[in-house]
Amino acid sequence: MEDKQPKGNTNVTEAVVSASDDSVEEKYRRLYEKMDKTARSRFIASRRFELQETLSLYTVVLMSCAVIGLTLLDGLEMLAPEAAKASAFLQVFAAIGVLVYSVILSKSDFALHAYRHHECGIAINHLRNSVFKHMVDMPKADKFNNLSDSYNTILERFENHLNLDFEIMLVRSKHYHKFYDVGFCFKSWVCVKAFLVYWHYLFFMLLSVAGLAWIGLAFDG
């Protein structure tokens, strides 16, 4: 499957380096489609970083609540000896989880990455509108070179998105289904890859909820 952009900016721009016998109209069309796919992928990457920040925050909050609740149970001596051992294990496990996700939140800069990818998408969309205007009017080769150079400049200013972001864009954008093999197997594989990005957040949040439910049952008992 061609046009897998996230391998590097050289791949992102290869569609604009067309053969010498390509018409000017064809060059504009290929550049426009390249910008469209890249901008869509950057917006998806921005939302991915936003979701990672949100899930990290929720994970820290839930696990912190679990640690506090389990510590309270131990202090009130409301658990049987075997349950107390399990509670101590869960406290250590949850405390490590809080530490790990706190470090992830402080070091990963999810919000900054989300903002930068969104900013890149907006910049590419703005330039894409200029390309479309020239496509409607009489396309000119010298203008194309300027627009292509501007596109490359934008790509050099920002980090690239993941291959997963590009694949999600293909799944969501029905317009490109006729150009790519976006069948059931491809969609399923993309879902699996997306799940692997977020599974640990869901696991620790569910574990924290289970711990809080156990605490609630202990108080009810």
Tell me the quaternary state.
Answer: single chain
Percent in strands: under 5%
Strands, count:
0
What class, by secondary structure content? mainly alpha
Q: Overall pLDDT, averaged?
A: 84
Global geometry: elongated
What percentage of residues falls in helices of 4 or more residues?
over 70%
Organism: Rosistilla ulvae
Pfam family, one: SLATT_5
Protein name: SMODS and SLOG-associating 2TM effector domain-containing protein
Keywords: Membrane, Transmembrane, Transmembrane helix
Structural account:
Keywords: Membrane, Transmembrane, Transmembrane helix. InterPro entries: SLATT_5. The protein has 7 helices and no strands. It has helices at about 10-15, 25-75, 80-110, 110-135, 140-155, 165-170, 185-220. The longest helix is centred in the first third of the chain and has 52 residues, at about 25-75. It has one domain (about 20-220). Residues about 5-20 have low confidence and may be disordered. By secondary structure, it is mainly alpha-helical. The radius of gyration is 25 Å and the shape is elongated.
